[in-house]
Amino acid sequence: MKKIIFSLLLALITLNISGIGNPPSLTVQIDTMENNVLYYKIFNKSGALMEEAFWKDGKNIGIFIRYHDNGVLAQQFNFDEQGRWVGKQKYFFENGEERLAGRWANGKMDGRIVWYTEEGEIQSSISRNDGAADKRITNF
Fold first, then answer.
1. For 113, what's the count of Cα atoms within 13 Å in the CB-facing half-sphere?
2. I want to staple 37 with a disulfide (CB 3.0 to 4.6 A). Which of 33, 64, 99, 131 is the partner?
3. Is the pLDDT of residue 19 over 50?
């Protein structure tokens, strides 16, 4: 268990280096679940929730949620037991509008991926099959 917690903390610190001599820029809260699965939350220096997810064997699994500094949902996606992106994935602008929506399978884009403008209009899309483009990008 100590190894799992250490690997999670090391990964989080690596992603959020604030520089030598600066105060910590985040707080990590870790809750132990069954089967060595950790549920964690990351808060910014003002205490706002930035990220919440599950962690096992050195990688994210299950649902992963990240928030913008203003508290609005920024990313929502899923990982399988091997830590690969799977299922519906969504990214959002700070105003709450969708930025990108699509599906992933085995860690690769699979199906239609759509990019949106900040006003909610479709900007472009592409269809992928197992990560490879199988239809042209369509710009709107």
1. 23
2. 33
3. no
